[in-house]
Amino acid sequence: MIINEQNLGIIDNFRLAVESSIGELVVFVGADNRITPDFIEKYLNVASKNPDAAIYCNDIIIFGPRASKLAGETNSSYIEKDRYQWRFPSPDNEAIDNLKDTNFMNCSSMYRRTWYDKVGGYKDNKKAEDFDLFRRIVFAGGKPIHIPHATFEYRQHSLEQANTVIQTENIIADLQE
Fold first, then answer.
1. CATH code: domain of residue 112
2. Which of 12, 153, 162, 172 is the most buried (most CB within 10 A)?
3. How does the average pLDDT of the chain come out, rounded?
């Protein structure tokens, strides 16, 4: 276990975690999110059959008090109270072309450490850290693979979530230019 003496922030904390790891496959799951019991099995099964891929992404379940708002924005399917399935597109040429502006990989997509190292890891560039890393990997030639299972559960609960804050800051910055 690594305990930081001070708050490093998300980028430096992720960098430290990857640098401290010994495995080839990396995935982060935020403390307020959940994984299903078959999460690791599904990811490892696809990774073992596709060792040439750089990123393994899947569909997700959105849950929590603000889930319906995000579900409406993402055209997600209703499952039950405060739970929706968000189906991500397969990483075809169109999805990759649109990757400049639109992400098709969720924040807990698994990636290969060799590709992380190849693109210089996480960078502090005022964008969502996962989207930025995955985009740089794909644009460097890393192949994404879609896993058609919703094994990751993403909580939507507040306006203070990191991506909400980043989006708001980017909108404000654009308005100021």
1. 3.90.550.10
2. 153
3. 86
